[in-house]
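Hello forum,

I keep getting stuck at the same step: I have a sequence, I want structure tokens, and every attempt I make locally crashes halfway through. Rather than fight my setup again tonight, could one of you with a working pipeline run this one for me? It's a single chain of 210 residues.
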Amino acid sequence: MQEHFQENEDVVTEETAADAAAESTSNNETAGAEQKPVEESGEPADNSPEAEIDPWEALELEVAKWKDQAIRNAAELDNYRKRMSREKLDAVRYGNQSLLEELLPVLDNFNMGMQAAAQEQGSMLYMGMDMVHKQIGEFLSSQNVEEIPAEPNGAFDPNLHEAISQEPSTEIAEGNIVRVVRKGYRIGERLLRPSNVTVSLGDQPQPESE
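Reply #2:
Ran it on my machine without issues. Output:
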């Protein structure tokens, strides 16, 4: 009886081993089927955009990007230097602008005194005032200040002249300057004060008297 049990145990052991071997073979076949695409291609499939870009091409794109950025920075730096140089020059050229604007009314009064003294040009008063007038002119020239041209019968320029009145004239064309009421000045390209002028209306018909 013991020998019979021993034979049955050996049969069960052989069957169990056979089943385990069959299961192992099946698992290996399944794993092989799943890994087959990887074995055929030699590497995992990757369809991402990064995998399609050539490394050299990516490097060239990166170099081009930084080169463009460097050019932009250089241009901005050059513009900044030019702007600072221009502002520095303007600060030197127009630094006395406010002072000169306050000086103009004093110059207007002095010119009125010159016109009154001109009635006696041989007097010591006129000669003294004329010398002072020349010194003032030299000072204004040294400050890059010049008088705005405004002559009778000259063209009216709204950028340089200010019309404070209009009147008819048979001698001066319409729109031209009749007279200068107050002189104007500019410093460099900047306007200190426009010239105040009277502008002609041209030959206007006179109303009939009753």
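The CA atoms of residues 70 and 76 lie 10 Å apart. If your local run keeps crashing, start a new thread with the error log.
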